[in-house]
Amino acid sequence: MIGLTIGIILLQYLLGPMIINWIYNINWIPYEEFRRDYPHLAEAVEKVIEIRGIKTPLMGIIPDKNPNAFTFGWTKNSARIVITQGILEYLNNDEQKAVVAHELGHVVHNDFILMTLVFAIPLLLLTIARWCYYASRGFFHSGDDEGVGVAIGAALTVVAALSYLSYFISYLISLVISRIREYYADEHAGEITENPNLLSTALVTIAYGLLMERNVQENRTSRIRALRGFGIFNPQAATAFAVSSARGDGKYSKDAIQAAAAWDLFNPWAKYYQIFSTHPLPAKRIMRLNKQCDIYGIKPEIDFSYAKKIKEEQAGKSMIPEFLTDITIMYLPILIFIALIALTLVWIFNVAGLYNISSGGVLDSMISNLLLFWAIGFYLIGFSVLIKVAFKYKSGFEPKEVIDLVTYVKASPIRTIPTILEGRIVGRGIPGYYFGEDMLLQDDTGLIYIDYESLIPLFGNLIFGLRTIKKYIGNHVKIIGWYRRGPSPYLEIKQIESVSGQRNKNYRKQASYIWAIIAFVIGFIIFLIWIQVLV
């Protein structure tokens, strides 16, 4: 099984670039044409080629206005760098160069191979854990008289538990390494451009969606999954991103940036999500780039000196109470179920210690009491689901702009803002991904990720991504939904409608009630069994 797992990892490594070519809409450009059309980007590429001695990477553009970039390949000499049309449209030439230099950082650092090996380790440990677990069951039921099978089974169980613990720890370590590689790629961009501010301001656009169409390029269309650590910004953990305040003098609104970054810096949810992310939080990356500015004697353009004050004005000194409330409500059904199991075990052990549990009367009474206990427990789980849905899907929808949403520091995956948002769909949530069902909306103040979920999640989402989404891209839409943040800003659709009359609804709220119904049904069945036991 270990050999098979290694084989699958190698196969994924070998086939990965071909799969990416298949599932993403990438227009590959001959390098001479790329140099002619984008001489400022070719300048960065050729500077790295000269310094690092690598082969010229293949350059591609995704015709999608979601600003993003990523790189993939087998080695640094077979690299492919991809940017979206949004990078060319929303960033100026120097910022575009910084983004390409960041991707070139992944190339010259050989992150393709490094991250493949890093993520392979937890996968191997998980394989060992599963094999030992299933093998131990076989030894436990071997039926040998000497007890050797039981001893081997016990040993394998211990190895399985230790392997699974090691898998979890190594997975978290691999994410830390991935975040470190992002910092290194950021530093590489600062070195190549000799101005770390360029990537900082680019990240403001990419990660927070700042709408500043400065030095806009002419809209043109040039003729298994990506390794998660190589994109300029993780397209699955945070595909969209919004905040902006465009001023007439063409400068960024520092207050808007700091309000958006305050979530990264001070909301406990940000720290929670950072643990499981391949990319550092944008504000952390900008702070690190600011330190690199000292090397070049440059004053940082983006600072967060007022971010804390903005947070305190919105949320007070501490956000821990709200975070604990959010966590409790989010996991309330699970917490009740765990409490039911724990109390049941305590109950059984106490009864066994006080009475002869094998006696008929005591056993019947214990079973009867446990049935009633679990019937009530499942009803509590059902009601907790209803509480969670009510908290998560509030009513009272009001018109908002993107900037109103993303500068809301108290937002979380469960603490929402019921919103009516109008704007134009400019791209997919994951740019260029043929099967993606999510979208990117632009209004007068920014860009934001739009989360769609079909009534039939897998098949319905696939159809929406392949066919329906094309009817929305480029059109003005009105969306009623719930703004959330975790780990990126996004709007979960209740209903979306375009000026052309296309309309779709999101049924995730209705689907959430299914769990409450299941809990009530199980509780009712257990209650009927309890009545039969009494009779």
SSE string, helices as H and strands as E = HEHHEEEHHHHHHHHHHHHEHEEEHEEEH
The percent range for helix content is: 55-70%
Shape: globular
Beta strand %: 5-15%
pLDDT averaged over residues: 85
By DSSP, the count of extended strands is: 11
Main sheet overview: 5 strands, mixed, barrel
- Low-confidence segments, given as residue ranges, are 212-230, 235-251
Strand order of the largest sheet: 6-7-8-10-9
Radius of gyration: 27 Å
Number of helices: 18
**Helices and strands: which structural class?**
alpha+beta
Distance between the termini: 53 Å
Structural notes for this entry:
- The chain has 535 residues and is an alpha+beta fold.
- The protein starts with a helix and ends with a helix.
- The protein has a domain of 82 residues.
- The chain is built from 18 helices and eleven strands.
- It has a five-stranded mixed barrel with strand order 6-7-8-10-9. The chain has a four-stranded mixed sheet with strand order 1-2-4-3.
